[in-house]
């Protein structure tokens, strides 16, 4: 954020998205029994309509990058079958047509398209959405410790071989 379009064009690589998010798309496809033909990326950016300062103190100058929508998509027979997407918008007047969580200022959306089709929106409504996101991410690992310790020796696959987490989650 805060880079010019020219700086971004020189520094951004789609390999970054594949490196960090490609495994999630492959994992979901594998758990669904779907063999993907290809994993691709996309990225859209928008620039600040005015100069402003975000909560962390970073000044975003007018005309520099202040919004990103990117994703990693798993394709089968030319159709997107699994997609992990991220939206980040630093100014409330930007990109009104992009997805926004229904409450709070950050969150996740899970969409299942098929029969039945479903959408689940999870919003961070605390004072610091970034901290909420980091805690929610960490909870998965922290709350799996007892299940991993109880598992048989060797490599285990979380969805297939570990019992589901339930009850009170602690951080």
* Rg from Cα: 19 Å
Distance between the termini: 30 Å
Low-confidence stretches: none
Largest beta sheet, briefly? 3 strands, antiparallel
Shape: globular
Strand order of the largest sheet: 1-4-5
Hey, roughly how much beta strand do the residues contain? 25-35%
Q: What portion of residues is helical?
A: 25-40%
Overall structural class, as computed from helix and strand content, comes to alpha+beta
The overall pLDDT, averaged over residues, is 85
Give the count of helical stretches: 5
In N-to-C order, the SSE pattern is HHEEEEEEEHHH
- What is the number of beta strands? 7
Walk me through this protein's architecture.
There is one protein chain. The model has no long low-confidence stretch (mean pLDDT 85). With 171 residues, the chain is α+β, with helices and mostly antiparallel strands. The chain starts with a helix and ends in a 10-residue tail after the last helix. The strands form three sheets. A three-stranded antiparallel sheet has the order 1-4-5. A two-stranded antiparallel sheet has the order 2-3. The protein has a two-stranded antiparallel sheet with strand order 6-7. The protein has helices at 5-11, 14-31, 129-142, 145-150, 158-161; strands spanning 38-47, 52-53, 59-60, 65-76, 79-89, 107-112, 118-123. The protein is 29% helix and 29% strand.
């Amino acid at each position: 954020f805060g880079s010019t379009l020219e700086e971004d064009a020189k520094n951004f690589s789609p390999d970054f998205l594949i490196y960090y998010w490609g495994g999630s798309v492959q994992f979901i496809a594998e758990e669904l029994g779907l063999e993907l033909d290809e994993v691709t990326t996309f990225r859209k950016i928008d620039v600040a309509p005015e100069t402003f300062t975000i909560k962390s103190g970073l000044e975003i100058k007018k005309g520099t990058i202040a919004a990103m929508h990117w994703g990693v998509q798993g394709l089968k027979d030319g159709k997107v079958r699994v997609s992990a997407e991220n939206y980040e918008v630093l100014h409330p007047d930007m990109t009104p047509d992009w997805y926004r969580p229904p409450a709070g200022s950050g969150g996740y959306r899970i969409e299942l398209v098929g029969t039945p089709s479903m959408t689940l929106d999870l919003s961070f409504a605390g004072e610091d959405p970034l901290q909420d996101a980091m805690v929610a991410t960490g909870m998965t690992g922290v709350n799996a410790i007892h299940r991993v310790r109880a598992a048989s020796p060797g490599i285990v696959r979380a969805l297939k071989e570990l019992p589901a987490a339930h009850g009170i989650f602690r951080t």
